[in-house]
Write a structure and sequence with these properties.
With 340 residues, this protein is an alpha/beta fold. The chain has eleven helices and twelve strands. Strand 3, helix 2 and strand 4 form a beta-alpha-beta unit. Bound molecules: fe (ii) ion.
C-alpha cells in the first residue's frame, strides 16, 4: 500500500491547518447540533482528524461524517468502541467487525480518509487499536466495592465479537493492532518523505495519559482504555526518542490532554457527553475542534487541560491507593445510601 497524496485547494497547494477532535457522540442531539453549527466556510481548506467514537448508530455516523466532509477539505477517521456497538442497529450485523467494515465503506463513499496519507510534507497515520486489562499496572484500589468492568462498560454487551476475540484477554488488542500491518509500506513511505508526522488512535497508548486510579470515580477505568501494542506502534513510527515533529492524537477517556512524554506530544481534544461539557473549565465552545497544526508548524499547547496541567507539576504516585477526597466522598455516599 502507498500513502494517499492529498492535495489542498489553497492557491499554493499547501495545507493550511489540521484540527483534531474525538468522542463526538452525536447520538446526543446536542452534539449533533454542535457538528451542524460548525462553519461551512471557515474550515474549507483545512483537515480534521476524528479520533473515534463518532456515534453509536450507522445512521448517525454517516450523517456526522457527511456534515464534517461538507465543512473540511479533508477528514480522517479511526474507529472507537462506540462505533462498534450493535445494540441499537436495525441492521443485523453478524459482528462488530462487520459493522466496522460498513463504516469504512461509508467513509470511502464520503471521501473520508481512513488510510495513511501525505498532505504537503505532513504525514497523517490512523492507527487501529483496542484496549486490554493488563494495560493497567498501577496498584489496585481495594477500599470500596468497585463495580466490575462488565457492569461499568457497555462494550461487554453492546459489541459482538467472533468467538476467538474477547475483552477479557489481549486478543482484541492484538487483533486490532495487526490491522495496521497492511499499512506498513505506506507508513514507511511517509517516514521517508515527511518531516512531520501525526499518528492518531481512539484508545490511549500510555497509562500516564490518564489520571491515577485514586483520582477517578471509576478507579478501574485504566483496564478499559489502553493498549501497550499501540504505544509500540507509535514509537515504531516516530522513533523511540520522538522529536519536535512527532505528535499522537487520541481519545476515549474524555479528558483534555496535551503533554510531551519521552519526546512525543500526546493530545486529546474530546467533545465528550453534554453533561461533561457543562462541567468543564474550558466549556466546549471556541477551542474545539482544536487546531494542532498550522502553516507548517505544530501549535501551542491546548489550554486549559486540567489533568495534564496537573501532572506537569505533580508527580504520579502509582503506589498510593488513598482515594482523592471527591472519590472517597462519592463511594461513602453510595455506601450510606445503601445502608439507609
Ligand atoms: Fe471510546
Amino acid at each position: 500500500m502507498r500513502p494517499q497524496i492529498l492535495r489542498s485547494s489553497t492557491s499554493d497547494g499547501a495545507l493550511s491547518r489540521v484540527f483534531v477532535i474525538s468522542d463526538l457522540h452525536t447520538d446526543y442531539p446536542e452534539n449533533m447540533d454542535w457538528v451542524k453549527s460548525l462553519s461551512t466556510v471557515k474550515y474549507n481548506r483545512d483537515a480534521l482528524i476524528v479520533a473515534g467514537d463518532v456515534a453509536e448508530t450507522y445512521k448517525n455516523f454517516v450523517s456526522t461524517m457527511s456534515l464534517l466532509k461538507d465543512r473540511f477539505e479533508h477528514v480522517f477517521y479511526v474507529p472507537g468502541n462506540h462505533d462498534a456497538w450493535c445494540r441499537r442497529e436495525s441492521e443485523n450485523y453478524e459482528s462488530s467487525l462487520e459493522k466496522l467494515d460498513c463504516l469504512r465503506n461509508a467513509c470511502r463513499r464520503l471521501g473520508v480518509t481512513i488510510d495513511p496519507a501525505i498532505i504537503d510534507c505532513l504525514g497523517i497515520i490512523p492507527l487501529y487499536s483496542w484496549y486490554h486489562e493488563s494495560f493497567d499496572r498501577e496498584d489496585e484500589i481495594a477500599a470500596f466495592r468497585i463495580p466490575p468492568l462488565e457492569m461499568a462498560c457497555k462494550d461487554y454487551y453492546a459489541c459482538k465479537w467472533p468467538e476467538e476475540l474477547s475483552n477479557k484477554d489481549e486478543s482484541l488488542a492484538a487483533f486490532f493492532d495487526s490491522m495496521n500491518n497492511s499499512k506498513q509500506d505506506a507508513i514507511e513511505d511517509i517516514q521517508r518523505k515527511c518531516s512531520q508526522i501525526i499518528t492518531f488512535s481512539h484508545f490511549v497508548p500510555r497509562q500516564e495519559l490518564c489520571p491515577e486510579k485514586r483520582m477517578l470515580f471509576y478507579p478501574n477505568l485504566p483496564k478499559i482504555i489502553g493498549s501497550d501494542c499501540l504505544e509500540a506502534r507509535i514509537r515504531s513510527v516516530h522513533g523511540q526518542e520522538g522529536g519536535p515533529s512527532a505528535c499522537h492524537v487520541f481519545g476515549h477517556t474524555h479528558f483534555c490532554w496535551d503533554a510531551v512524554l519521552d519526546g512525543i506530544r500526546y493530545v486529546q481534544a474530546p467533545l465528550a457527553y453534554p453533561r461533561e461539557q457543562k462541567r468543564r473549565m474550558n466549556g466546549g465552545e471556541g477551542w474545539l475542534p482544536f487546531c494542532v497544526y498550522s502553516d507548517g508548524e505544530f501549535s501551542d499547547r491546548l489550554y486549559p487541560c486540567y489533568w495534564s496541567d496537573y501532572y506537569s507539576v505533580n508527580p504520579r504516585e502509582p503506589h498510593n491507593t488513598e482515594l482523592a477526597p471527591w472519590v472517597a466522598r462519592f463511594y461513602s455516599r453510595r455506601l450510606t445510601s445503601r445502608m439507609t
